[in-house]
Amino acid sequence: MSAREWIGKDFYRELGVSSDASADEIKKAYRKLARENHPDANPGDTKAEQKFKAVSEAYGVLSDPTKRKEYDEARRLFGSGGAGGFGFPGAGGSGNFDMSDLFGQTAGASGGFGGLGDILGGLFGRRGSAGAGASRPQRGADVETDVRIDFAEAVKGATLPLRLSSPATCGTCHGNGAKPGTQPRTCPVCGGSGLVNRSQGAFAFSEPCRDCRGRGKIIDDPCPECGGEGISTRTRTLTVRVPPGVDDNQRIRLAGQGEPGRGGATAGDLYVRVHVSPHPVFGRKGNDLTITVPVSFTEVALGATITVPTLDGKVSLRVPPGTSSGRVLRARGKGIARRDGSQGDLLVTLQVAVPSTLDGDQRKALEALAQASTHYDPRPEITRMLGGSER
Fold first, then answer.
1. Measuring CA to CA, which residue among 193, 176, 308, 271 is closest to residue 232?
2. Helix, strand, or coil here: 116?
3. Residue 209, annotated as binding a ligand
4. Which residue ranges contain the repeat CXXCXGXG motif (predicted)?
5. Which strands form 288-295's sheet, in the order they lie side by side?
6. Whose CB has fewer CB within 10 Å in the chain, the N or C terminal residue?
7. Does the annotation list 226 as a binding residue?
8. Could you say which DSSP state residue 75 is in?
């Protein structure tokens, strides 16, 4: 993509965010649009596919702090065509400086500003040499996707198949962009560097080679699948290992499984964001599992042994006599076991259950208990506030 095209694109508008949006806002907007326009969710819908590619491209720039800074600076300087204000020879201060002489035709495979030459090289901390120019290898962009697992899989770990539709190395040309049976040839104009030297008045600078579009190679017969780009959107299936004890909204990194790099550079990484479905009985607090168990009044008053479920079976716990409702008992080692060797517990909260109806014998027994408990005051503080007039 040419530098002119990169600057001309409004990546913020593609994602529907403002230019001062935070990284979290950009990520949230991208994930929403990517889900809505994903090819798997819109089979045969070319508009959705184009939108998916557009938001992926926008996120690839705006999610990278360095690329975003360069993009913002370049748009501020050149986005409105205001180069004439810099007084370049021939500009006359009127803004009619030929921007194509500065940017050339394209920025080559890097997709960034490495091919703008010496003039912008100092601005962005790069040099306008062939070694860092348009043909400079560029690491592939990182990709993020989401998976949902159940509570037990999050606790114990799981191996999941993950189906992705994303940019990947073209399977037909294996990334070189040429039709099978042919090979790209070295550009005779730039000698394979991707850059040529040009003069503009008093200035001399490097710019992307127009013949090879800054790639250093010329493809006479492009690959029919990728159109010579070496990258195509394809569906692939990966195996993701979810470690035991993964937290909700945690990301798992799969190195080298993102978008392929250009110019022989390494591929980006794939980040899998895990969403854990809640369990109908168990909860979680760090490495500990939690559960609330109903008990009867007699069990907490007289003491009892109760059986409590765990994710692996069951465990027996002793309820001491006189236990209050809301007390937490601990079953050690029955929580979450992580790969680092840490082991959580099962925290059991006792909750006294009150029957909604009583038969005759139950009512008589409770009335007898109430009569025998006339000297027991369960609310001493409130009684003192009332002056001892009520219990």
1. 176
2. helix
3. yes
4. 170-177, 187-194, 209-216, 223-230
5. 283-285, 288-295, 346-352, 328-331
6. C
7. yes
8. H
CA distance 10 to 58: 8
Q: What's the CA gap between 175 and 228, in Å, rounded? A: 9
Q: How would residue 126 be classed by pLDDT, with cut points 50, 70 and 90?
A: very low
Residue 261: partners with Cβ closer than 8 Å, 6 or more residues away: 137, 138, 139, 140, 267, 268
Give the residue from 47, 80, 113 where a domain finishes: 80
Q: How far is CA 199 from the centre of its chain?
A: 45
CB 63 within 8 A of CB 30: yes
Q: How far is Cα 360 from Cα 39, in angstroms, rounded to an integer?
A: 67
Is 256 labelled a binding residue? no
* 225 labeled binding residue: no
Could you read off the pLDDT of 8-43 as tens digits, one per residue?
678 898 899 988 889 889 989 998 998 888 877 787
CATH number (domain holding residue 302): 2.60.260.20
d(CA 196, CA 207): 6
Strands 288-295 and 346-352, how do they pair? Answer: parallel
- Which domain-ending residue is among 32, 51, 80? 80
**Domain assignment of residue 24, given as a range:** 1-80
Residue 90, domain member (yes or no): no
327 is in an annotated binding site: no
C-alpha–C-alpha distance, residues 126 and 132, integer Å: 7
Here the tokens at position 164 are 């992705």
Query: Does any domain span residue 335?
Result: yes
Could you give the CA distance from residue 131 to residue 216 in angstroms, rounded to a whole number?
Answer: 12
Inside any domain, residue 256: no
Residue-wise pLDDT for 64-95, tens only, equals: 888 888 888 777 765 444 333 333 333 334 44
Single pTM value for the model: 0.51
226 part of a folded domain: no
- Strand partners for 198: 205
CATH of the domain at 5: 1.10.287.110
Q: Are 142 and 222 in contact (CB under 8 A)?
A: no
- From residue 105, give the alpha-carbon distance in Å to each of 125, 132, 207, 284, 361: 22, 18, 9, 57, 95
The total of structural domains in the chain comes to: 2
